Amino acid sequence: MPDSTIIKSPLPGLYIVATPIGNLGDISPRAAAVLAEANVIAAEDTRVTAKLLSHLGLRISMTPYHDHSDERARAALVARMEQEIVVLVSDAGTPLISDPGYKLVRDARAAGRHVTTLPGPCAAIAAITLSGLPSDRFLFAGFLPSKVKARADTIAEFAALRATLVFYESGPRLAAALTALADGLGNREAAVAREITKLYEQCVTGPLRDLAARYADAPPKGEIVVIVGPPPEDSHEEGDDETIDAALRAALADQPVARAAKAVAKRFGRDRHNIYARALTLKDSV
Ligand code: SAM
Questions:
Q1: CA 257 to CA 33: how far, in whole Å?
Q2: 145 C-alpha vs ligand 1 centroid, how far in Å?
Q3: Residues 135, 166: contact at Cβ < 8 Å?
Q4: H or E, element range at 179
Q5: pLDDT tens, position by position, 119-135
Q6: What whole-number distance in Å separates Cα of residue 212 and Cα of residue 214?
């Protein structure tokens, strides 16, 4: 049975508080109550959090916090948690999710402090709910690397997973990321969710290559989450010998022969031994 109590006198400790990802109306009453009780708010960017506090009519002391803040700053916060209410927020959404906080939680736990969370907005979860793609199993992959090879290697790690994949992206990188995802995963169904909870919220769905073409000459503005559906059950991409050679050459550029052959055979539903033999022939021309 849900409990609607808003704590009147919270215990000292660390409170991880999710904040809106675009619409200030999404701050929960409990989050507002705990912020009002805080002795100090550890914020990713105190200027951003100041706007939220002003919306709530609060004046609370803040200190900047990043996981790369020095050990002394973190230790000082953990020390304060013994007697005081320390609230952790990031600029938007759920702290620790592609945002600072993990080391603070780790150290607070190690010191035996009271640690609790006030869940709320998270762009990844909101985008999954908008996408219409399977939501029973998903992997949150954060931001893809920006360098081409590192991005392809990361995507290759996800290729065999039977799960929906979730990525944070930016407008200028979007089309290249969608193309790299299609190259590495096949032309799966996907969604681009943009500006969630804001005035121009939009969710565009379609196969990865269609989405890549749509955004190639028109990088969208605003904040973006890309959702990629799982590989279709027991189905494979269609590909003639030329297409398979091209896929093998691309895979051989950054993977050993056996791994490249395995991935391409799986992607096109071909015999692994035949594809391996073909990969051996092609490898010297890559
Ligand atoms: N901790 C945050 C959360 O819980 O969603 C995410 C922080 S991460 C540094 C910021 C990224 O989240 C943005 O670059 C974008 O990819 C995504 N994002 C945040 N707000 C969004 C929104 N309103 N609509 C779409 N994506 C958003």
A1: 58
A2: 16
A3: no
A4: helix 171-185
A5: 999 999 999 999 999 99
A6: 5
CA of 252 to the centre of ligand 1 (A): 34
| pTM as predicted | 0.83
- 15 CB contacts (<8 Å, ≥6 apart)? 34, 38, 85, 86, 87, 88, 116, 117, 118
Quote the tokens at residue 24: 């200030």
Contact between 158 and 139 (Cβ < 8 Å): yes
Query: pLDDT tens for residues 31-84?
Result: 999 999 999 999 999 999 999 999 999 999 999 999 998 899 999 999 999 999
Q: What are the domain boundaries of the chain?
A: 13-121, 124-228, 241-285
**Joined tokens for residue 94:** 């759920």
Pocket test for ligand 1, best of 131, 168, 201 (most atoms within 8 A of CB): 168
CATH superfamily of 124-228: Tetrapyrrole methylase, C-terminal domain (3.30.950.10)
Residues 250/192/161/94 CA torsion (nearest 10 deg) = 130
